[in-house]
Design a protein that fits this description.
Layout (H helix, E strand, L loop, with lengths): L3 E4 L7 H5 L6 E4 L6 H11 L12 H6 L6 H28 L1 H5 L8 H4 L4 H21 L16 H21 L7 H19 L7 H26 L3 H4 L8 H25 L11 H16 L7 H7 L1 H20 L3
Helix pairs in contact: 4-7, 4-8, 8-9, 9-10, 10-12, 12-13, 13-15, 14-15
Length: 342
Amino acid sequence: MEKVIIHNDPQSTTKEDEQSPQLPGVEVLDPTPVSFFSKVKALIALMRPKQWTKNGAVFIGLVFAGQLFQLDPFIRTCLAFITFCFVSSTIYVLNDLLDIEKDRQHPVKRFRPLASGRLPVAWAKVAFVVLLLLCAILATLVFFIPSHSDLYHTLGGASILFAGSIAAYLIMMIWYSFRLKHVVLIDVFCIAAGFVLRIVAGSVIIPVVISPWLYLVMCFLSLFMGFGKRRHELVLLQGQAGSHRKILKEYSIPMLDQMMTIVVAGTLMSYSLYTIQGPTGNHRLFITVPFVLYGVFRYLYLVYMRMEGGSPDEILLHDRHMLATVLLCIITVIGVLYILPK
């Protein structure tokens, strides 16, 4: 059968086109930009800077330890944030390199820089190496910023532990890219572990000890978003989910709904217990529970009624209700911990 070639312009693609499956025997070719500027723009998109909001988890230790307005801890935490931005981008580049062909069969991911042909594969490979080097440089810079606490001196010190958390994240996510993302449930648990490692990195770099309840909150919350993302993929791809990613054959919407119910309950209970039993806030952080409750319910609404959830960072940045809830919660936490009398 003769193959029909259609030159597709991503800028003029409608929402209906994005959700329509590729026709058999039809190859969609996106025009590859020839200008250097266009390639640089595609390279930046490959790094997914919009998803850097996830790395804000490294500030949890700084905020809840009451050191937000102390210069050296703030600088060290900002450096940890920048480091995790480059580390996560390194993993995004690797994933897109490994999944080029699969992404081309996805109604949305086929517009990514590598899958659409807007960025040469050689550029992505060079970017992967450069990002790894930048991660190593940034992790080394921490050793030159003073830390006024020897809390973890028996374990090698704060800088050593921070470098170890970066290395652990890289190793786990590279293993995830090659193997673990193909193992049912473990794929989502790896995503949750990545968020927990962000909190660990943010606490050891200062260094402080934060409540185990906060680790539980982040673990349950990241599992919630991970299962929501899998559910969104099943709804979006429908019968073609297994052909795009084999692991999706191991999931079903009723199964994911039950697991989301469990982790939502765990999230709310863990955060509520932290506000009561945690070492900070003198129990006054309990007034932030309604914000967390509304935020979780709003996310459930978007997942079940708006069929969203595939990209939590997009929801945070574009849904005004979620954004306002997060900002109000942050302001309230800062007010309780830093403004109200202790």
